[in-house]
Amino acid sequence: MEQILRNFFLFLSKNKLFTKLAKKYGLRFGAGRFVAGETVENAAEVISQLNQKGMLVTVDHLGEFIDSEEEARNAAEECIEMIEKIARDKLDAQLSLKMTSMGLDISEELVMENMRRILDAGEEHGVFVTIDMEDYQRCGKTINIFKQLKKDYENIGTVLQSYLYRTVEDIEDLNQFKPNLRLVKGAYKESPKVAFPDKKDVDNNYKKIIKMHMLNGNYTAVATHDDAMIEYTKQIEKEYNIPRSQFEFQMLFGIRTERQEELVEEGYKMRVYVPYGNDWYGYFMRRLAERPANVAFVLKGVIGK
Ligand SMILES: Cc1cc2nc3c(=O)[nH]c(=O)nc-3n(C[C@H](O)[C@H](O)[C@H](O)COP(=O)(O)OP(=O)(O)OC[C@H]3O[C@@H](n4cnc5c(N)ncnc54)[C@H](O)[C@@H]3O)c2cc1C
After folding, report:
1. Is the torsion defined by CA of 107, 221, 263, 122 positive or negative?
2. N or C: where does the chain have the smaller number of CB atoms within 10 Å of the terminal CB?
3. Which of 170, 182, 286, 287 is catalytic?
4. Under a CB-based contact definition with an 8 Å cutoff, are residues 61 and 75 in contact?
5. DSSP symbol at 243
6. pLDDT for position 298
7. Do the Cβ atoms of 247 and 213 come closer than 8 Å?
8. CB burial class (10 A; 0-12, 13-18, 19+) of residue 295?
């Protein structure tokens, strides 16, 4: 049953009509639990509250499936506005974004142009930018964009997903750039031709890439809510004397908040991924797919209103 629900929400997450309707009718149906609001101001308030609790942030202006150059340029503008807001309010925050929101499905030139503007603003204000990883179809292109930009910018990182067979090779290949990488299990529905179908294999590969990247001496963001993976990272830290300045934990806004606070109390760097904006639908559906138990929570919220 859980697998059926998971596939159902992943199917819904790609529906363009629902994406448009969701934008039009606002942040309802419980998405507010996972999304910091629709505006830069809403996001800044949430970031400030998290910073006060000792947490770092990466803020994501939600956006995917854009259809025009104009939309991509507007999305880049929003990112620059957020970077300026981070600097103005002295927030401890980085930026995350998706290549499709920058125009990946339109042209690579457009993406590069938008990214250079964002990275220039980031450089000016000391804000680091992480390129989120999307589905397999776009993985190779995203990594190539990252490689090109990394030659010119220090303030850029990206994400690798342990469910993909190719990821171990990507870790090895990207090592030449000494990159700051966020490591995740992977949130999209992929074919067994390209991704491990069994959770056990995804988890084992996750441990493998955490160890590889940390022992390569590269900055590692372990982005998971899974205690077993957090414990594994701590084990590697102790076994190989990895300084705490070389890695951090990351979790999503609204998920396992108490665990996030515990990690801060234990003295670890904890970064919360804070999404905001009106294009929240796809993000919200992927969160429901990850944990169908959240549906009950959302339904309670809707019925309770
Ligand atoms: C900061 C961050 C950034 C991300 N960026 C990307 C990205 O760019 N591209 C991408 O494809 N994916 C991204 N993801 C999503 C990621 O790929 C996974 O889909 C997601 O994190 C779920 O996997 P998991 O590692 O948390 O553990 P899972 O294997 O889903 O769960 C393992 C265990 O963790 C605990 N757990 C998980 N969720 C919850 C919950 N909601 N409440 C309580 N306990 C829970 C439970 O004990 C569960 O059994 C990101 C995730 C994070 C945290």
Report:
1. negative
2. N
3. 182
4. yes
5. -
6. 54
7. no
8. middle
Report the SS3 class of residue 226: coil
Gap between the Cα atoms of 211 and 193, Å rounded: 25
The one-letter code for the residue type at 208 is K
Are 178 and 218 a contacting pair, CB within 8 Å? Answer: yes
Nearest CA among 2, 7, 1 for reference residue 190: 7
Residue with CA closest to ligand 1 atom 33: 226
Best of 59, 99, 158, 185 for a ligand 1 pocket test (most atoms within 8 Å of beta carbon) = 185
Name residues whose C-beta falls within 8 Å of residue 89's C-beta, 6 or more positions apart in sequence.
44, 48
Give the angle 140-206-194 at the CA atoms, nearest 5°. 40
Q: Enter the tokens of residue 16.
A: 């363009």
Cβ of 213 less than 6 Å from ligand 1: no
Query: Which pTM value belongs to this model?
Result: 0.90
Please give the Cα distance from 190 to 1 (Å, whole number). 19
Amino acid (1-letter code) at residue 33: R
The two tokens of residue 299 are 């339904």
Reply yes or no on whether 132 is catalytic.
yes
User: How far apart are alpha carbons 222 and 250 in whole angstroms?
Assistant: 6
**How far, in Å, is the centroid of ligand 1 from the Cα of 185?**
7
User: Whole-angstrom Cα distance, residue 271 to residue 252?
Assistant: 9
The residue nearest atom 53 of ligand 1, judged by CA position, is 251
d(CA 31, CA 35): 6
Reported as a single tens digit per residue, the pLDDT across 130-159 is 999 999 999 999 999 999 999 999 999 999
Q: Ligand 1 center to residue 230 CA distance, Å?
A: 12
